[in-house]
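The protein record filed below.
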Amino acid sequence: MESKKDYIHGDNADIVATDSQKNTVYIMAKKHGIRSPEDFGLLLCSHFLAKYPHVNQVKVTVEQFPWKRIKKGEVKHIHAFLALPDATRFCTVRQERSGIPRIESGLKDMRVLKTTQSSFVNFINDEFRSLPDMSERVFSTVVFAKWEYFTSKNLDFDVAWEIVRDAILGNFAGPPETGVYSPSVQNTLFITQKEVLEKIPQVSFIEMEMPNKHYYTVDFSKFFPTVSKAEDDLKEVFIPTEKPSGIIRCVLGRNLTAKL
């Protein structure tokens, strides 16, 4: 806001109270509904700029927590619901009075794991290395992704978000019948970002983080013969580790430069 008199002189005449802001969100949702988080963010930005002439810039952040009807077999419950999601959808919309909206969309808390077709080998081997080559390992991570649109023309925000989600899951898991090989988290991350830029021309850049969430097979050797050698070779039991691990991050934009 242009006004500083509330801070300097204790004059509250230009303050839009947080209670009023909260009520505005509820009323706008009631009157207009919510087509997508991004559309609702744009609506709120436009409202505050139009309603209050002394407001120069608005920033709205929206997180989506959807619900689905509880099902018994194929029958959906008439009034009971189960909270989702498998990932949290969010967006941030910024708009200045004299500018065009800046729209960032994203997802977070997408926890994924696969038990094979992942490796990490041939990295630097010096006196500080203790990690062995891993030609076969569990690949688990919690995905964070954020991307910016340079235009919303001819854009369906819901479809675009689903394209990003499907690109993440597709490049991580691969086809159901065969899977897909990952030589590193870095490579999986990069090819996902590249696919997003190819499929959504309105995206200017995409930032992703995929931290390692390591799992190791449980050593049952001390339980022989209670657990047989044949049973141990199946390696079906994994345990997560709390040891520090890497956060792999990359930003890929339309100039095809990557920041690692």
Observations:
- The radius of gyration is 24 Å.
- Confidence is low (pLDDT under 50) at residues 256-260.
